[in-house]
Design brief:
Strand 6, helix 6 and strand 7 form a beta-alpha-beta unit. The protein has one domain: TIM Barrel (Alpha-Beta Barrel), CATH 3.20.20. By secondary structure, it is an alpha/beta fold. Helices cover 36% and strands 16% of the residues. The longest helix is centred in the middle third of the chain and has 14 residues.
Length: 229
Protein backbone atom coordinates (compact mmCIF):
# COMPACT_ATOMS: atom_id res chain seq x y z
CA UNK A 1 0.00 0.00 0.00
CA UNK A 2 1.36 3.43 -0.97
CA UNK A 3 2.36 5.93 1.72
CA UNK A 4 2.04 8.82 -0.72
CA UNK A 5 0.19 11.84 0.64
CA UNK A 6 -3.19 12.56 -0.93
CA UNK A 7 -3.72 15.57 -3.20
CA UNK A 8 -7.35 16.41 -3.91
CA UNK A 9 -8.25 19.04 -6.52
CA UNK A 10 -11.60 20.74 -7.14
CA UNK A 11 -12.96 20.01 -10.62
CA UNK A 12 -15.91 21.68 -12.31
CA UNK A 13 -15.88 19.72 -15.55
CA UNK A 14 -14.06 17.05 -17.55
CA UNK A 15 -11.39 19.50 -18.76
CA UNK A 16 -10.50 20.30 -15.15
CA UNK A 17 -10.49 16.63 -14.25
CA UNK A 18 -8.15 15.62 -17.07
CA UNK A 19 -5.69 18.41 -16.21
CA UNK A 20 -5.78 17.61 -12.49
CA UNK A 21 -5.09 13.93 -13.08
CA UNK A 22 -2.27 14.78 -15.50
CA UNK A 23 -0.73 17.01 -12.83
CA UNK A 24 -0.72 14.26 -10.22
CA UNK A 25 -4.00 14.64 -8.33
CA UNK A 26 -5.03 11.52 -6.44
CA UNK A 27 -8.70 12.45 -6.10
CA UNK A 28 -11.14 15.11 -7.29
CA UNK A 29 -13.86 16.99 -5.47
CA UNK A 30 -16.65 17.60 -7.98
CA UNK A 31 -18.70 20.76 -7.56
CA UNK A 32 -20.62 23.36 -9.54
CA UNK A 33 -21.02 27.11 -9.00
CA UNK A 34 -17.93 28.25 -7.13
CA UNK A 35 -19.58 31.67 -6.75
CA UNK A 36 -21.67 29.89 -4.10
CA UNK A 37 -18.56 28.13 -2.71
CA UNK A 38 -19.31 24.84 -4.45
CA UNK A 39 -22.69 23.17 -5.02
CA UNK A 40 -23.85 19.76 -6.25
CA UNK A 41 -22.93 19.06 -9.88
CA UNK A 42 -25.42 17.52 -12.28
CA UNK A 43 -25.58 13.80 -13.01
CA UNK A 44 -24.51 14.59 -16.55
CA UNK A 45 -21.40 16.45 -15.38
CA UNK A 46 -20.51 13.58 -13.07
CA UNK A 47 -20.93 11.11 -15.92
CA UNK A 48 -18.68 13.10 -18.26
CA UNK A 49 -15.98 13.41 -15.60
CA UNK A 50 -16.22 9.74 -14.64
CA UNK A 51 -15.72 8.81 -18.30
CA UNK A 52 -12.72 11.15 -18.63
CA UNK A 53 -10.54 10.08 -15.67
CA UNK A 54 -9.90 7.01 -13.58
CA UNK A 55 -9.05 8.52 -10.19
CA UNK A 56 -11.56 8.64 -7.28
CA UNK A 57 -14.26 11.32 -7.35
CA UNK A 58 -15.95 12.84 -4.30
CA UNK A 59 -19.18 14.62 -5.22
CA UNK A 60 -20.51 17.61 -3.30
CA UNK A 61 -24.03 17.41 -1.82
CA UNK A 62 -24.97 21.03 -1.20
CA UNK A 63 -27.72 23.10 -2.81
CA UNK A 64 -27.13 26.61 -1.42
CA UNK A 65 -24.32 28.81 -0.17
CA UNK A 66 -23.80 28.51 3.59
CA UNK A 67 -24.07 25.55 5.93
CA UNK A 68 -27.82 25.12 6.45
CA UNK A 69 -29.28 22.09 4.68
CA UNK A 70 -32.21 23.82 3.03
CA UNK A 71 -34.39 21.44 0.99
CA UNK A 72 -33.39 18.06 2.38
CA UNK A 73 -35.57 16.08 -0.02
CA UNK A 74 -33.86 17.80 -2.96
CA UNK A 75 -30.49 16.77 -1.53
CA UNK A 76 -31.72 13.21 -1.08
CA UNK A 77 -32.94 13.18 -4.67
CA UNK A 78 -29.59 14.46 -5.91
CA UNK A 79 -27.74 11.81 -3.90
CA UNK A 80 -30.01 9.09 -5.30
CA UNK A 81 -29.47 10.28 -8.87
CA UNK A 82 -25.71 10.50 -8.47
CA UNK A 83 -25.59 7.03 -6.95
CA UNK A 84 -27.56 5.72 -9.93
CA UNK A 85 -24.99 7.39 -12.19
CA UNK A 86 -22.19 5.53 -10.42
CA UNK A 87 -20.98 7.96 -7.75
CA UNK A 88 -19.37 6.15 -4.83
CA UNK A 89 -17.86 8.94 -2.68
CA UNK A 90 -19.38 12.19 -1.44
CA UNK A 91 -18.79 15.48 0.39
CA UNK A 92 -21.38 16.99 2.73
CA UNK A 93 -21.80 18.79 6.04
CA UNK A 94 -24.55 20.86 7.63
CA UNK A 95 -24.95 22.92 10.79
CA UNK A 96 -28.08 24.03 12.62
CA UNK A 97 -28.80 27.59 13.72
CA UNK A 98 -26.71 27.07 16.87
CA UNK A 99 -23.60 25.91 15.03
CA UNK A 100 -24.10 22.27 16.00
CA UNK A 101 -24.05 19.46 13.42
CA UNK A 102 -27.43 18.94 11.73
CA UNK A 103 -27.51 15.24 12.55
CA UNK A 104 -31.00 14.69 11.16
CA UNK A 105 -29.96 15.83 7.69
CA UNK A 106 -26.56 14.15 7.80
CA UNK A 107 -28.05 10.83 8.85
CA UNK A 108 -30.84 11.11 6.24
CA UNK A 109 -28.27 11.56 3.48
CA UNK A 110 -25.90 8.92 4.80
CA UNK A 111 -28.76 6.43 4.79
CA UNK A 112 -29.26 7.20 1.09
CA UNK A 113 -25.54 6.73 0.42
CA UNK A 114 -25.68 3.13 1.65
CA UNK A 115 -22.15 2.75 2.97
CA UNK A 116 -20.33 5.16 0.64
CA UNK A 117 -17.30 6.96 2.04
CA UNK A 118 -17.70 10.68 2.56
CA UNK A 119 -16.02 13.88 3.73
CA UNK A 120 -17.51 16.30 6.25
CA UNK A 121 -16.49 19.56 4.63
CA UNK A 122 -15.51 22.96 6.05
CA UNK A 123 -18.72 23.33 8.02
CA UNK A 124 -16.49 22.07 10.84
CA UNK A 125 -14.63 25.40 10.66
CA UNK A 126 -17.92 27.22 11.44
CA UNK A 127 -19.01 24.86 14.21
CA UNK A 128 -19.73 26.20 17.70
CA UNK A 129 -17.56 23.42 19.15
CA UNK A 130 -15.24 21.44 16.86
CA UNK A 131 -14.48 18.78 19.42
CA UNK A 132 -18.15 18.22 20.21
CA UNK A 133 -18.99 18.01 16.51
CA UNK A 134 -16.37 15.34 15.97
CA UNK A 135 -17.70 13.28 18.86
CA UNK A 136 -21.31 13.65 17.72
CA UNK A 137 -20.39 12.39 14.26
CA UNK A 138 -18.03 9.66 15.45
CA UNK A 139 -20.42 6.78 14.81
CA UNK A 140 -21.99 7.99 11.56
CA UNK A 141 -21.25 5.37 8.88
CA UNK A 142 -18.89 6.18 6.04
CA UNK A 143 -17.30 9.33 7.46
CA UNK A 144 -13.59 8.98 6.79
CA UNK A 145 -12.39 12.56 6.24
CA UNK A 146 -12.72 16.12 7.58
CA UNK A 147 -11.93 18.91 5.13
CA UNK A 148 -10.70 21.74 7.34
CA UNK A 149 -8.58 24.87 7.47
CA UNK A 150 -8.77 25.00 11.24
CA UNK A 151 -10.53 28.39 11.05
CA UNK A 152 -13.23 30.08 8.96
CA UNK A 153 -10.53 32.54 7.86
CA UNK A 154 -8.29 29.83 6.41
CA UNK A 155 -5.12 27.90 7.16
CA UNK A 156 -3.09 30.99 8.16
CA UNK A 157 -5.36 31.51 11.18
CA UNK A 158 -6.18 27.83 11.66
CA UNK A 159 -2.69 26.34 11.66
CA UNK A 160 -2.43 26.03 15.48
CA UNK A 161 -5.79 24.24 15.58
CA UNK A 162 -4.76 21.88 12.80
CA UNK A 163 -1.53 20.98 14.54
CA UNK A 164 -3.32 20.45 17.86
CA UNK A 165 -5.92 18.20 16.25
CA UNK A 166 -3.25 16.23 14.40
CA UNK A 167 -1.69 15.41 17.76
CA UNK A 168 -4.99 13.82 18.85
CA UNK A 169 -5.05 11.33 15.98
CA UNK A 170 -6.75 8.10 17.05
CA UNK A 171 -8.77 9.57 19.91
CA UNK A 172 -12.57 9.14 19.75
CA UNK A 173 -13.83 11.48 17.02
CA UNK A 174 -10.33 12.04 15.65
CA UNK A 175 -10.01 8.85 13.62
CA UNK A 176 -11.08 10.35 10.26
CA UNK A 177 -8.32 11.68 8.06
CA UNK A 178 -7.71 15.43 8.11
CA UNK A 179 -7.79 16.89 4.61
CA UNK A 180 -6.27 20.37 4.78
CA UNK A 181 -7.77 23.03 2.55
CA UNK A 182 -9.01 26.60 2.58
CA UNK A 183 -6.43 29.26 1.85
CA UNK A 184 -3.75 26.56 1.79
CA UNK A 185 -0.39 27.73 0.42
CA UNK A 186 2.80 25.91 -0.42
CA UNK A 187 4.60 27.56 2.50
CA UNK A 188 2.15 25.91 4.94
CA UNK A 189 3.27 22.45 3.89
CA UNK A 190 6.45 22.02 5.98
CA UNK A 191 4.65 22.52 9.31
CA UNK A 192 1.71 20.37 8.24
CA UNK A 193 3.90 17.55 6.97
CA UNK A 194 6.02 17.70 10.14
CA UNK A 195 2.78 17.05 12.07
CA UNK A 196 2.30 13.94 9.87
CA UNK A 197 -0.70 15.41 8.08
CA UNK A 198 -0.95 13.68 4.74
CA UNK A 199 -3.94 14.98 2.78
CA UNK A 200 -4.27 18.32 1.01
CA UNK A 201 -7.07 20.01 -0.95
CA UNK A 202 -6.67 22.81 -3.49
CA UNK A 203 -9.06 24.79 -5.65
CA UNK A 204 -7.93 28.26 -6.66
CA UNK A 205 -4.29 27.21 -6.24
CA UNK A 206 -4.77 24.89 -9.22
CA UNK A 207 -5.99 27.82 -11.35
CA UNK A 208 -3.33 30.55 -11.56
CA UNK A 209 -5.57 32.56 -13.92
CA UNK A 210 -8.57 32.45 -11.60
CA UNK A 211 -11.83 30.50 -11.40
CA UNK A 212 -12.86 31.53 -14.89
CA UNK A 213 -9.91 29.54 -16.23
CA UNK A 214 -9.54 25.74 -16.12
CA UNK A 215 -7.30 23.73 -13.84
CA UNK A 216 -3.65 24.05 -14.88
CA UNK A 217 -1.79 20.73 -14.91
CA UNK A 218 1.55 22.45 -14.23
CA UNK A 219 0.14 24.15 -11.12
CA UNK A 220 -1.13 20.81 -9.83
CA UNK A 221 2.26 19.24 -10.58
CA UNK A 222 3.99 21.95 -8.51
CA UNK A 223 1.81 20.96 -5.55
CA UNK A 224 2.40 17.27 -6.16
CA UNK A 225 6.15 17.85 -6.13
CA UNK A 226 6.06 20.02 -3.00
CA UNK A 227 3.94 17.50 -1.11
CA UNK A 228 6.18 14.62 -2.08
CA UNK A 229 9.43 16.37 -1.12
Amino acid sequence: MSNRALLEVIALDAQDAIAAQAGGADRLELVSDMAADGLTPSRETFGRIRAAVDIPLRVMLRHADGFAAGDVEALVGAARGLRAEGAEEFVLGFLDAHGDPDLVTVERLVAELEGCRWTFHRAIDRAADRDALRKQLADVPGLDTYLTAGSPAGVDDGLPVLLAEASRRGEPGYEPRMLIGGGLRLDHLPALRAARLDAFHIGGAARPLGWEAPVDAAAVRAWRTAIDD
